[in-house]
Design brief:
By secondary structure, the chain is an all-beta fold. It has no helices and six strands.
Length: 79
């Protein structure tokens, strides 16, 4: 299973220092994987956030603080 993602900080007049992480979960053939569980884990604090891909495989984490993260994707039928 493959998850493509982008972490994109967006500067604003208020100088908010967060970004977003989003992508599309797909399998080895390129087919999208709906209902996959995506976990974002902060490597320094071990705090986690979870989301689920939608019917088109898309997922999004908003307001992501700058840090080093591990992204894990799990779905039924995949190892």
């Amino acid at each position: 299973m493959v998850a493509g993602w982008t972490l994109a900080p967006f500067p604003s007049p208020a100088q908010v220092s967060t970004g977003s992480l989003h992508g599309i979960v797909s399998d080895a053939t390129g087919a999208v994987v709906p209902n996959a569980r995506i976990t974002l884990k902060d490597q320094a604090t071990n705090s986690t956030r979870d989301t689920t891909s939608n019917r088109t495989g898309f997922f999004n984490f908003a307001a992501v603080q700058p840090a080093n993260y591990t992204v894990t994707v799990t779905a039924a039928g995949f190892n």
